[in-house]
Amino acid sequence: EDSQGEKENAINLISEDLMQHIVGEYFKSYTFQCIASHFLTDVYTTPEDINLYELFYDGSYIVGTNSMVSEEEKQLLLNRYLDEIHGDVVRIKTWEMNEVLQKYMGITLEETNKYGLDKMYYLEEYDAYYMMHSDTNWFFANFEAGKINEDGTITLQYYRDNYYDGTTPTYWVTLKEVDGKYYIISNIRVASE
């Protein structure tokens, strides 16, 4: 009887209310204009290993600031990096990156391993990073369950429809609570059906 009770406590599933609160507050997976859902676009086991290219793929549009890129910026990109511009020029400023990383992970750009920055172009005059593409990496995450881990972190299980190959991968995103606020610390793929 005791061992059965211990097993149930070890799993420690979170309530539907808490799961919906975290999903609604942090991932808002029903809307494109939510940077938090972009923390689910790639896998990582520590906040420092977040792929910044994937996270900021849609630029400042998703953090709610002016995403219009000036003709001067485009000309500087052409002069320094490109022969021509294909698709849209997407921009994210360094201060925007820091604001997002601090809000959702509790770290700054300097504290990351800077994965993905090499896929962007940097203009010092604007202290901003630029990408060129005409699509989005947004998807809909379907959250199913959550549990409290032994160390107090919370892991949420979700799946997303992968329309490229017909699979339905399952992921675990783990958050740490600090003073009533949740910080994302990892996102791993656990299975495919």
Structural overview:
- By secondary structure, this protein is α+β, with helices and mostly antiparallel strands.
- Helix content is 25%, strand content 26%.
- It contains 5 helices and 7 strands.
- The protein has a 4-stranded antiparallel sheet with strand order 4-5-6-7.
- The chain is elongated and about 55 Å long.
Low-confidence stretches: 1-10
What's the average pLDDT? 84
Major sheet attributes = 4 strands, antiparallel
What is the count of DSSP helices, taking H or I runs of 4+ residues?
5
Number-wise, the strands total 7
Overall geometry: elongated
* Main sheet strand line-up: 4-5-6-7
Helix content: 10-25%
Strand content is 25-35%
Radius of gyration: 19 Å
What distance separates the N and C termini? 35 Å
Order of helices and strands: HHHHEHEEEEEE
Structural class: alpha+beta
Could you name the key traits of this structure?
single chain; alpha+beta; four-stranded antiparallel β-sheet; three-stranded antiparallel β-sheet; 5 helices; 7 strands; 25% helix; disordered N terminus
